[in-house]
Write a structure and sequence with these properties.
With 267 residues, the chain is α+β, with helices and mostly antiparallel strands. It contains 4 helices and 18 strands. The chain has an 8-stranded mixed sheet, covered by helices on one side. An 8-stranded mixed sheet has the order 12-13-14-11-15-18-17-16, covered by helices on one side. A two-stranded antiparallel ribbon has the order 1-2. The longest helix is centred in the N-terminal third of the chain and has 12 residues. It starts with 7 loop residues before the first strand and ends with a strand. This is VOC family protein.
């Protein structure tokens, strides 16, 4: 199996693991687990199974038996934003966490074991955007991608790309592919020539009360229908649907305010 970018490599036991630096998981920290399960189950057809409990109650979202995302519960005494967080693969999460610190980032949680599933850390880059680091246990299999209800892409919205992209390049070994434009500050980060994530600098257009943030794009069969379903289920449509070079996209939020995007890929 491969991820959406095609980055996976075989283990000795025949299973597949993500190449270090590949986006390999997305996780949502919510306040009401039952209502959140109901929303995403109706929108994406997810079912839910108990997951590891390193940070409290946690479930895996499953499509046809394959885990595609995770949902945890925010502690009631912590004023943290309800948000989707991408995780990037590592062969040694402790070493990657040290690299984050040495490059000016912050490690807020971990590294710690997630039962027998692997080892993780939650970190933020020098601009404050939160991301995860995931070291899968031996024998773990790369998740399913490329079908409706699965993550398709992760994109960072930040102040500027130059220093932030350099941070991720140093920590994860990416190659930078900037857009040459006076009107657009955008860098695609690549591994082995494949695009794995994007960094979009928007300068003063970034909301002051929000700060830099990651957006996860989920594949859907029909963007307009999915956006209508978000509204019907109590969420919001924040932008679009609109046609882009990568497909038809809508930016939405769930009933608790967690932002994400819907995309029907071009072609």
């Amino acid at each position: 199996m491969t991820d959406a970018r095609g980055n996976a490599r075989p283990n000795g036991d025949g299973s597949a693991r993500h190449t270090p630096g590949t986006p390999c998981w997305v996780s949502l920290m919510a306040r009401g687990l039952a209502a959140t399960e109901q929303f995403y189950g109706a929108l994406f057809g997810w079912e839910f199974r108990p997951g590891p409990r390193p940070l409290g109650p946690y479930v895996r979202a499953v499509l046809d038996g394959h885990a595609v995302a995770g949902i945890g519960v925010l502690p009631p005494d912590r004023r943290l934003p309800v948000a989707w967080t991408p995780y990037f693969a590592s062969d040694d999460v402790d070493l990657t966490a040290e690299s984050v610190r040495s490059c000016g980032g912050t490690v807020g949680v971990g590294p710690l074991d997630a039962d027998d599933a692997g080892r993780l850390a939650l970190a933020s880059d020098p601009s404050g955007a939160v991301f995860g680091i995931w070291q899968a246990a031996d024998g773990a299999v790369a998740g399913v991608t490329g079908r409706p209800g699965t993550p398709a892409w992760n994109e960072l919205t930040t102040y500027e790309t130059t220093n932030v992209a350099k941070f991720y390049e140093t920590v994860f070994g990416y190659d930078e592919d900037p857009v040459v434009s006076t009107d657009l500050d955008y860098v695609t980060l690549r591994l082995d020539g494949r695009p794995v994530t994007g960094v979009h600098g928007v300068g003063n257009a970034l909301p002051r009360d929000r700060g830099p943030y990651w957006t996860t794009y989920f594949t859907v069969a029909d963007t307009d229908d999915a956006a209508d379903q978000v509204l019907h289920l109590g969420g919001q449509v924040l932008g679009g649907p609109r046609d882009t070079e990568h497909g038809r996209v809508a930016t939405v939020a769930d009933p608790e305010g967690a932002r994400f995007a819907l995309v029907r890929k071009a072609g």
